[in-house]
Amino acid sequence: MSQGFDYIIVGAGTAGCLLANRLSADPSKRVLLLEAGGKDDYHWIHIPVGYLYCIGNPRTDWCFNTEAEAGLNGRRLRYPRGKVLGGCSSINGMIYMRGQSRDYDLWAELTGDDTWRWERVLKAFRRHENHWRLDDPKTAPAGFAEMHGSKGEWRVEQQRLRWPILDAFAAAANEAGIPPTSDFNAGTNEGVGYFEVNQKKGWRWNTAKAFLRPTCFGRPNFELWTGAQVRKLRLLHDDTGLRCCGVEVLTPKGVEQPWLNAGGEVILAAGAIGSPQILQLSGLGPAALLQQLGLTVERDLPGVGANLQDHLQIRAVYKVQGTTTLNTRASSLLGKAMIGLEYALRRSGPMSMAPSQLGAFTRSSPDKAWPDLEYHVQPLSLEAFGEPLHAFNAFTASVCNLNPTSRGTVHITSPDATVAPAIQPNYLSTDADRQVAAQSLRLTRQIVAQPALARFKPEEYKPGPQYQTDEELARLAGDIATTIFHPAGTCKMGRREDPMAVVDSRLRVRGVSGLRVADASVMPTITSGNTNSPTLMIAEKLAGWMTA
């Protein structure tokens, strides 16, 4: 390189694309955005149902797997992470969800920084939001504009389909005491309703479209490298201490080493798996692990790769009668052709579907002070993700514990950056999580037993009505549960006195100048809902600090 960069952003995913947009807005700053994957020019990225062809596809997915999980009775889970421009926003479920206000108030307490409180992060959410209800502000509900944004890049729209079985499930949830809601994102997401999604006119709206095109691509101070995997950070010991001065990147041309101008910064936005992996490869992490692999310990940071949290969903399946679900609608060539035609003509129907359409937030028991469960309800069923739909009509009511107490790890197993790290979520490893699993399955049965669903004669297929005790239900949860792809917490932020905190409240890596982390890995506790939009908010907060 003939000259250095002011900012090097590692990962052109959810956070990286927004950061590139905000930081390159200053024409005096040279910005380099690095993406290990390729361009987002695969057609299935942009058709909403195309996640089926992106997850598990090395063109768009890192194709990670977990280690064998004791809480899942020895099973390993597929662990998708986006490896393409737009990152996970190119392959995820497209659900727009902020979490609960208490999540961010807790972050403020854990970090000692009130800028993470709900009323402060709300401004960051609103800055990049473009909500469909505010297309005509006159028709928006009273006070809606105080909670949502209309001029940002991140489009939020209604889903373009409904299903009678989902409407009936929502009515049954009402009968079971879960109120209806039209907005999951006002601070408390309790209630049942159709999810809103990050789509635009029936197409997936990923962060590459939102934040890179056309703005960044027209800026002479901005560079994007795809097919560029960071091997490690370049660290320098000088009179001021340990400093990050650039990165080593494996590209099709070989190893390249873009460097930082004086005062520049590297921002890791490689996600809850990629960011701790890169830190550990660079000698920043648990000393014992690094020494075991023959790596020089640049800084002993025991929290790097620790504190892994994820949402584990328990997939209860119910056969139904007297209605059509996607199982039979898509079972014939004619049915598939009609689905394709509807999407081609109207950008609606099953091809416009997010993986989950109906959502519900509620409490696993009456003594809970806040909703601790989230339902993703779908008009379909299958044995496991990627397998064929069942031959009978059915719906799936997947339920997850929003606030798991189980904690896992992400640890490299080799000094080679191309070797996948060991991912050990430790699902259902605490008594509290196993208890919530059993309670959530009982609550699902309670909802399905309500009069609103009676005409469809629901019959429990999984886990099966013969299982009744807490011990049986927790064990069966281990058989049928799977991740909903929300890893977080592996480079958590925290107070100076917290030995496991990797970054401070402004996302600076402890003991290393010129280096920050901005993605879901910095969450000290996982948000109470889907994690993509909170990750965008984190990037927006950091961009505000860096450009102030």
Percentage of residues in strands: 15-25%
Count up the domains: 2
Unreliable runs, pLDDT <50, ≥5 residues? none
CATH class of the largest domain: Alpha Beta
Which class of secondary structure composition applies to the elements?
Answer: alpha/beta
Query: Treating each run of at least 4 consecutive H or I residues as one helix, how many helices?
Result: 15
Number of strands: 25
Radius of gyration: 23 Å
CATH architecture designation of the largest domain: 3-Layer(bba) Sandwich
Largest sheet: 7 strands, antiparallel
Mean pLDDT level = 96
Q: What distance lies between the first and last C-alpha atoms, to the nearest angstrom?
A: 28 Å
**Overall 3D geometry?**
globular
CATH fold call of the largest domain:
FAD/NAD(P)-binding domain
Helix content: 25-40%
CATH superfamily of the largest domain: FAD/NAD(P)-binding domain
Structure description:
This protein is an alpha/beta fold and about 550 residues long. It folds into two domains: about 5-45 and about 210-305 and about 490-545, FAD/NAD(P)-binding domain (3-Layer(bba) Sandwich), CATH 3.50.50; about 160-195 and about 310-400 and about 425-485, Cholesterol Oxidase, domain 2. Helices cover about 25% and strands about 20% of the residues. It has helices at about 15-25, 45, 50-55, 100-110, 120-130, 145, 165-175, 205-210, 270-280, 285-290, 325-330, 335-345, 430-450, 470-480, 530-545; strands at about 5-10, 30-35, 65, 80, 130, 155, 190-195, 200, 205, 220-225, 230-240, 240-250, 255, 260-270, 285, 300, 310-320, 360, 375-380, 395-400, 410, 420-425, 460, 480-485, 515. Strands 7, 17, 18, 19, 20, 23 and 24 form a seven-stranded antiparallel β-sheet that branches. A five-stranded parallel β-sheet has the order 10-2-1-14-25. The chain has a three-stranded antiparallel β-sheet with strand order 11-12-13. The longest helix is centred in the C-terminal third of the chain and has 18 residues, at about 430-450. The radius of gyration is 23 Å and the shape is globular. The chain starts with a strand and ends with a helix. The mean pLDDT is about 95.
